[in-house]
Amino acid sequence: MPPGSTQTDKPGTFQRTDRRPLALILTIALIAPVSLHAGDTPAPTPEPNRLRAVVETLASPEFAGRSGPGAEKAANYIVDRFRALELEGAFDGDYSQTIPGQEPGTRIGRNVAARLVGSDPKLRDQYVLVAAHFDHLGVRGGRLYPGADDNASAVAMMLEAARCLKTSPTPPKRSVLFIGFDLEEAGLFGSRYFVAHPPIPLDRIALFVTADMIGRSLAGLCGDHVFVMGTEHAPATRPWIESAAKGRPLTVDLLGADILVLNRSDYGPFRSRGIPFLFFTTGENPCYHTPRDVPETIDHPKMLQISRMIEQVVRSAVDAPEAPRWSDHPDNPLAEAVALRTVLRILHGHRDDLKIGVAQEFVIQSTLRLLDGIVERGAITPEERARVIQGARVVLFTVL
Ligand SMILES: [Zn+2]
């Protein structure tokens, strides 16, 4: 999808929202003296200019594609933001966790994290983690890999979530850790090291939330779609997502993380340990892992909506009376089949642009036929799901 072409940019919508601010300012001005006491102060929400500024900063040449000295600079940048928010360091008061190299005395990078202590004495021992990896591919062959979508987009979301929760008039009940992981691109080194050396006991993690690439669309074709994985192991998170997505110009697709075969982002080490997790992504697109992953091609309105949705999900997670429970037996909803059918139809509709060959075409057609039957019947068997997943994987791996 071309940048900036989500529903929020449609001329009709624009005119309507355009008039609203003035009316709103007038209303606030009229009622403010009498009714704007603490309880009425609206909760802060991720702001477009702030998100954009983080993406533009981290993707700028000074950050060298956030590898080597660039990664160091990015870690410092995130720490400065934590400090400005007056959040405490998550590692015994320190903001940084050094990731040692194989040779004694060497280091290969560092994670950064801050803690916001919960307000409820009964719940504050439990933690919600909000994480994004800040590293990327660096400069290769003299070319800069800016990594605007991968993953400056989610770092911006994480920093905005930190600002919103910290400055909220109603502080979160559970505690929160905001984390910037290093060395994701090298093989999830940062998150793996964190889980092996956690600053809090792992059984106190109520929910791990991460996002990786939330600024574009799958194959550059899937418009307002955003994928959420992990609810299959923690179905209690679904109402939170549903309510956070309500009224937004987004199509939220719940998928099982097993569709990706391997752990493709920092949720992996948490998932392996049976910790409830949510992973948000808009998926791979033509700029993925290329020097073209620049801020100019980010769909900023979409990224804003996703950031606001995630912040709202986190809000639900920190205040919910019960923490979500991990289930070993994935509960894959029928909605997954519906979502996969929609996505496969979109990709199939662009088979010429995507240079889909005869063999892939056959896989898509037979998977779509299978999905039609499943959706019509309103039920899916484990065998059918296995076939659907296999078909979807073939398409995703060969097309993208
Ligand atoms: Zn990434």
3D structure, described in words:
This protein has 400 residues and is α/β, with parallel strands linked by helices. It contains eleven helices and eleven strands. The chain has helices at residues 11-35, 48-58, 69-84, 148-167, 189-196, 238-245, 268-272, 300-319, 334-349, 358-377, 382-399, and strands at 88-89, 96-100, 107-116, 127-133, 139-140, 143-144, 175-181, 205-211, 225-229, 251-255, 277-281. The longest helix is centred in the first third of the chain and has 25 residues, at 11-35. It is 42% helix and 14% strand. The protein has two domains: 43-319, Aminopeptidase (3-Layer(aba) Sandwich); 334-399. The strands form two sheets. Strands 1, 2, 3, 4, 7, 8, 9, 10 and 11 form a nine-stranded mixed beta sheet that branches. A two-stranded antiparallel sheet has the order 5-6. The structure holds zinc ion. Zinc ion binds next to helix 4. The site of zinc ion has 7 residues, from helix 4.
The radius of gyration is 21 Å
Helix content: 40-55%
Corresponding CATH architecture of the largest domain: 3-Layer(aba) Sandwich
CATH superfamily of the largest domain: Zn peptidases
Roughly what fraction of the amino acids lie in strands? 5-15%
Number of domains: 2
What average pLDDT do the residues reach? Answer: 90
Number of strands: 11
Identify the overall geometry: globular
Gap from first CA to last CA:
15 Å
